[in-house]
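Hey, can you fold this?
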Amino acid sequence: MSALQGVVRSFDPVTGAGVLVCDSDLRDYEFTAEALEGSVFRTLRQGQRIVFDAEGDRAVGLRLGSEVDMGTPGFEQPHPGSAQHPQGGTEG
């Protein structure tokens, strides 16, 4: 699995299924309600930015990113230059 960032393309609140567009490769990643289990999300909106893990063409483990994870200007990246992190850093 790899951590990626993207935005919600579509979300069905009845089924909990949806599609994300990945920032780095612009691919669509489908997800099911199980991807939201254990997260703070109860619902998602189109265009919402999130961090997720990819298993093939499926998104799993949807979560909010920190300001650093989301690349917010003014927040220093912990490990600049590393390709293993969505914003150029690696996990701890």
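Oh, and this one too while you're at it.
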Amino acid sequence: MIINFIVWIILGGVIGWIASLIMRTDAQQGLFLNIVVGIVGAFVAGMFLTPLLGGATINQNDFSIVGLLMSLLGAVILLGVINLFRRGSVR
């Protein structure tokens, strides 16, 4: 149980960091915000993308390639929405 939590935090941070690199917001985010973006992005993917595309996310204990990519896509979408509200454009 503790190991799953640690892996969840680490993968959330890595996914959030990669998403911030893709969306070019890495300079604005620190480690904590990368973890939050990765985990919340996985939640967004779990709510909206997995019913449409199938698969699972890291929040559903799916640490496969499909689960990681689904979580990454959710994190990118989350950062795009945040950029849309913050700057008026997705970038």
